[in-house]
Structures are given as C-alpha cells and as structure tokens.
C-alpha cells in the first residue's frame, strides 16, 4: 500500500482550479486500478438534480434493482478538500454500497472558493431534505436515511447531522465519517506526527479551511462550519467513524468519536493500521481497502435495511 500511495500524484490545494484538475486526474488513476473488474450488477444509476435558491444541485442516484423491500438510503458527500471532487470522484464506492443493497444519492454540492461556507453544507442539508421528501417516489424508505462522506465530505456529513438534530430535520439512522476533517485548529498529536505524507499534508488542511471558511464572521464561530467546536452531541445520529493511522487528520476523527460517545451517541470507531488518508479511494484494490469498504457497507446495511 505504501508503494501504491507513492505512485499517486500529489494534489496541492493552493490553486483551487489546478487542484480540481489534478484531483480529477488522481481519481482517474485510482479508477484505472479497477480496469477489467466488472461493475456490480443489479444497480441502476441515474443523474438528476434538485433546485436550491439560485442554483440546481446535481445528484447521482444509485438504486439496488433487486431490493426485496424499499431500501434505506445513504446521502453521500464526496471528498476533495471542499474545493475539488464531483459525482465521479467516488463513483466506485457508491456503486459498492448500492450493490450491497443500500440506495445511495451522491450530491454535487457547490464548492469554495466560489461558494464558501455556509453554501456547501446548506446544499448538503437541502439534499437530505429533498431525499426525505422524494424517497417514497424513488422507491426508498423515507424513515431510514443516513449521511456520509470522506475527508471534507465527512466534514459536511458531520455538519448535516448537527443541523438535522438542531433544526428538527429528518431523523438520521447513521452518519458515516471517513477520515474526516473536523477541527480547524490543526494542533492534534497526529498533525505533529504526520505533517507531510504522500497523500495529505498539514498545509493542505490549512488551505482547505481557508478556502472553505472564507471571510464570513459566522464561519469563525459556527459549529456547522467546524464540527469539533460542538460542546454537546446529545441526540445526534449514531456514527461510524474511520481513522487512518498514517494521517494528520487521524486524531480529529478519534477525538470526535470520543466526544459523541461521551454524550451518549452510539459510535463505531475503526482505526485502520498502516493506512493513509484516502487509502480506500486511492488504492481500492488493496486488501485493507476491500476490508474497509466491506465494513462500511455492513454498517450501512445494519442501519438502513430491515
């Protein structure tokens, strides 16, 4: 896995436009590892959109074709340091979840710096509300909805779980947080221990937060901008949290899981030894990636299928 990580092109987030191109190239290289492997059978994929004030937000709907009963649905937010990524970035992951029997709606939220906080999170929350309203018509179970994402997408998933709790929104069965970025202070032990790896650097975290938070006074204090600012997690959705050992963001994931558990939220914390940030997306064919993806799918099945 270490050699595979070194073979991946490093994506700098200094220039968001270049980052988008390079991130797309890196995702394409990861998908090339799957060349020759057939897509899961029995999954219908449809692109659509829904309106928000001033824009339409793209969605990709993954429907398990042979589900015996209406499946629960995961609303998924891709990674990419907020500024990069799209519906293609984690297509393979979403296909795998759908092949396991879970419906997925992937969200193409608007990105900074053109659309800094609170726009991406509000797009994601609006998508959850849209899914809750449209689920029955789509053949999904509206009472079984989860949110999830990787890296910055996990940040958004955590924020949406907080919003749903505070706003009396859709009751969420699970929040899936895969190597999340949750704290803009960048002072954790793993930040000091792994300041520069082949897949993520502390400088990336600083740039990511700068692009996302922008100059908004609200962003400087909002728990929805930086979920680690939350003092009380009582009533927030149960969580599946994944932390990669060789990742500057590792301790943020662990600390968040501890905070959730402290306040009575059921938490399943997975610490993947030897793994780096984004390992299961970058090297999906590795054994550790396959095991992790299977674990994620199993947690979703447990939460969303009856």
Automatic annotation (TrEMBL):
Keywords: Hydrolase. Residues 74-279 form the Alpha/beta hydrolase fold-3 domain. InterPro entries: AB_hydrolase_3, AB_hydrolase_fold, GDXG_lipolytic_enzyme. The keyword Acetylation does not apply. GO terms for molecular function: hydrolase activity. It comes from the Bacteria. Gene3D superfamilies: alpha/beta hydrolase (3.40.50.1820). The keyword Hydrolase applies. This is Esterase. It comes from Actinosynnema pretiosum. The lineage of its organism: Bacteria, Bacillati, Actinomycetota, Actinomycetes, Pseudonocardiales.
């Amino acid at each position: 896995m270490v050699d595979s990580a070194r073979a991946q092109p490093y994506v700098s987030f200094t220039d968001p436009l270049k980052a988008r191109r390079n991130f797309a190239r890196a995702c394409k290289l990861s998908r090339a590892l799957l060349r020759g492997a057939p897509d899961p059978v029995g999954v219908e994929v449809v692109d659509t959109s829904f309106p928000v004030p001033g824009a339409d937000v793209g969605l990709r709907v993954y429907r398990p074709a042979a589900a015996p009963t209406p499946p629960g649905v995961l609303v998924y937010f891709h990674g990419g340091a907020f500024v990069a990524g799209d519906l293609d970035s984690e297509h393979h992951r979403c296909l795998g979840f759908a092949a396991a029997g879970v419906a997925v709606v992937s969200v193409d939220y608007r990105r900074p710096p053109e659309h800094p906080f609170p726009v991406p999170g509000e797009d994601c929350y609006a998508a959850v509300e849209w899914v809750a309203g449209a689920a029955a018509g789509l053949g999904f179970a509206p009472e079984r909805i989860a949110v999830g994402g990787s890296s910055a997408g996990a940040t958004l998933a955590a924020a949406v779980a907080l919003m749903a709790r505070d706003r009396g929104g859709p009751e969420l069965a699970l929040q899936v947080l895969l190597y999340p970025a949750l704290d803009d202070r960048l002072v954790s032990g793993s930040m000091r221990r792994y300041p520069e790896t082949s897949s993520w650097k502390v400088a990336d975290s600083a740039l990511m937060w700068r692009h996302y938070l922008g100059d908004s006074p609200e962003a400087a204090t909002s728990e929805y901008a930086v979920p680690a600012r939350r003092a009380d997690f009582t009533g927030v959705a149960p969580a599946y949290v994944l932390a990669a050992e060789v990742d500057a963001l590792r301790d943020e994931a662990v600390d968040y899981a501890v905070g959730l558990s402290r306040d009575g939220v059921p938490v399943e914390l997975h610490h993947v030894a030897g793994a780096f940030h984004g390992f299961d997306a970058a090297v999906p064919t590795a054994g550790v990636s396959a095991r992790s993806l299977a674990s994620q799918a199993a947690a979703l099945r447990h939460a969303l299928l009856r």
